[in-house]
């Protein structure tokens, strides 16, 4: 019945059906032309303006194009008005669901006619109601969170698109091009990386602050007052969801050669001839050398615990230690640790990072480690922030120093942690950063209010300690008036507490005496009632005897009365003790509150003084970079951390990421939305034939491709022009001023050598040996090569800052703006192309899609140039190595010197070097910077072209798609089209996917994200406010939230 052969028609019936079909085709052709003339909007180049200044339509119908040339215009026909009109299909329309009547009709029939358009909703964007487009959310953090949630939904939707199209790939091969485009979109999605580094002296509290920001007490080992974290520790988001790997770490060890260099230096210092070589004319001061040996030996002993003393070390060799079984397999290979428990993870991590002395006989591996990367889940890490705990200044290991130096260059935000116990004043505020670190931040463009934060740690400690003038309040008379009442209360309450303690002791002694008397009375009564032999036990029934001779009973009555009196006295005194205890508790509580108020006043006072000193030094340093840098008012984040203020610090760090995160999210969301708009004409094209004749395509496609080529050439010319302008800024602002800077710095070079000569001769020798860079065991840093460069950069700093902060970014912004204009002009030229009425609607779609590429161009250009811009600014780091290379003969000569008088000879060598070769030295360092900077400047045209090529590729794809979808394979246009059922099924599935995405973007829901604290085994930071942006910004209470006891952990 079903699927059998169709009934046979007679010849007359067949001719009748053919005549009816031909008539229908003619009617449809005429109707389509008339509808076009009455209802569509002509291209701009076909509009005229009447005497009233209003736009009117002057239509130029197109004759059939000959095979040898373009179509020629004919005389305009009278305007025809019809009562009906057809809305143009738009690629921005919403997508009907698979259950819509239109799609059902298509699926139920082998063919249908073009006037069966989908409903009017197809002309609307499916994403107009997306919540991420709304401007109603005033909270920036909440707004960014909504956009990032939309990004995750967009990524999921793209994966669904790929899955759907792969299911239909066999019957719709053109889907592969769409899959490739999705993969390109996902690849160019940008993720924010913000490196936040914590710098400070040993024991300043850097690790404690990192733990607090993570909400995980004791995750990283910390110990107040001593060096604990000995290596660079990077903490970033854990992308692994496996419960067994909730806490992960990757440990990077030194290479064999790096550890060998440290061992050989130690053995060299131990040799007697080395000590003799270091001797000089003045009195030998072995402290520096002995400190160096002891510090190095402590590291060696930690790795090789079987070596108990220096004599034991002398009995072995560096080669033997390198091949020891405990270390030989570690060199150069990273180790991995992972745990579900934070406590267990912290224990496992400790041997790799904690430099504290351990009572364990097991080897500690931290001396061999140069970097540890920790991966955990924490809200602050979800924002793209990576926390970097940089070790204190007491490590002289060159491998770890190199890792730390590399991180300094990567930092986006620098947090300077300073121990505030001694306070920060005008004298030491300048030394918090150090001249070299401060100068590098200035040259990197990171010495500003958005990239620099000063944190005063331990602000609540040591107020009770006395100084030579008294306590903290006595040292600062301004506090005495504020704290007078509370100080008086503390004094009075302390006296009361002491008096109550005295009374309590007296009562306790009386109670003890009464109890002793009671025990004696009981013994007497027991002996009267029932005497027993020594060693025997009296039964309870015997003690309760109440009958006997009158004399005995009288004695018992007297004893029992004394016993009752004693018990009453004990009860009364115990009641008095309880009363005294309650009074003492109340006094101690009042005393605690009074002391807290005093401490609060001291903290505020100390913080205010310290913050003001830091702020003044910060402002002075900004003036070095140019007066335009100075801003008035209180700088966000540039304040003292009151009490703990961890929530406020966290909010500030997160706040610095908001603008960039929003920018990245919007760029990706625009990519997704544009992709859907680009894909819609292909989705909706369920026909086998389209409108444009093949011969028309043969003429117009090369013409349009030629315009694309001209656009590409315009991009290239604009990029070259922009690069030339950037080079000119560098030439005028920096290169032209280098000779003068070299002359000034060369004149100061002898003074630098003179300053080096003021240190002890043994230190002078070791710094020469290490080619100008050395940190001793006390944390004193010597960086001679950077000292030399500092004088040059002091002169060039304002120009360097203005060039890379203002001039080059401005040229880049102008390039993006001009490129956008080129795209707009190209889109207008496409609209003005005379293809004929049949493809006018599709032409409007093409114009819209081309215009959308401006967003892509801006994002790709900024992304590509970001790396080049940072690289150009970082070229200043090449100056110090160039100085080191230039001074290599000087360092080598001074290292080889020894014996009596060698310190004087070395100082003379330095003096002559700086005096005679100072200018050449600075020229060599500046040449190294210029060579690298020129190299990056020369890559700018290619960088900009590479970014614009992404746009060109997309436009080429749009043009090809336009012609593919709007060209027939024959020589005549057809109005009747044959449906591809496989394409309809694909359209139904993709339409459903797109509708799902539209609905998800219209909602503000998100899956509940679970962090580690949902497991009772590890109480990390048990506070829902961490997962609520609104509450997160209000801060958290440290006493309640910063709890994590091992008892609860295990």
From TrEMBL:
<dbReference type="GO" id="GO:0005741">
    <property type="term" value="C:mitochondrial outer membrane"/>
</dbReference>
<keyword id="KW-0472">Membrane</keyword>
<feature type="compositionally biased region" description="Low complexity">
    <location>
        <begin position="90"/>
        <end position="100"/>
    </location>
</feature>
<dbReference type="InterPro" id="IPR045063">
    <property type="entry name" value="Dynamin_N"/>
</dbReference>
<dbReference type="GO" id="GO:0015031">
    <property type="term" value="P:protein transport"/>
</dbReference>
<keyword id="KW-1000">Mitochondrion outer membrane</keyword>
<feature type="domain" description="DUF7605">
    <location>
        <begin position="747"/>
        <end position="917"/>
    </location>
</feature>
<feature type="coiled-coil region">
    <location>
        <begin position="556"/>
        <end position="583"/>
    </location>
</feature>
<keyword id="KW-0496">Mitochondrion</keyword>
<protein>
    <submittedName>
        <fullName>Nuclear GTPase SLIP-GC</fullName>
    </submittedName>
</protein>
<dbReference type="GO" id="GO:0006626">
    <property type="term" value="P:protein targeting to mitochondrion"/>
</dbReference>
<keyword id="KW-1133">Transmembrane helix</keyword>
<keyword id="KW-0812">Transmembrane</keyword>
<comment type="similarity">
    <text>Belongs to the Tom5 family.</text>
</comment>
<feature type="compositionally biased region" description="Basic residues">
    <location>
        <begin position="901"/>
        <end position="912"/>
    </location>
</feature>
<dbReference type="Pfam" id="PF00350">
    <property type="entry name" value="Dynamin_N"/>
</dbReference>
<dbReference type="InterPro" id="IPR019603">
    <property type="entry name" value="Tom5"/>
</dbReference>
<dbReference type="InterPro" id="IPR056024">
    <property type="entry name" value="DUF7605"/>
</dbReference>
<feature type="domain" description="Dynamin N-terminal">
    <location>
        <begin position="196"/>
        <end position="439"/>
    </location>
</feature>
<feature type="region of interest" description="Disordered">
    <location>
        <begin position="41"/>
        <end position="126"/>
    </location>
</feature>
<dbReference type="Pfam" id="PF24564">
    <property type="entry name" value="DUF7605"/>
</dbReference>
<feature type="compositionally biased region" description="Acidic residues">
    <location>
        <begin position="109"/>
        <end position="119"/>
    </location>
</feature>
<keyword id="KW-0653">Protein transport</keyword>
<keyword id="KW-0813">Transport</keyword>
<keyword id="KW-0175">Coiled coil</keyword>
<feature type="region of interest" description="Disordered">
    <location>
        <begin position="898"/>
        <end position="922"/>
    </location>
</feature>
<dbReference type="Pfam" id="PF10642">
    <property type="entry name" value="Tom5"/>
</dbReference>
<dbReference type="InterPro" id="IPR027417">
    <property type="entry name" value="P-loop_NTPase"/>
</dbReference>
<feature type="compositionally biased region" description="Polar residues">
    <location>
        <begin position="48"/>
        <end position="57"/>
    </location>
</feature>
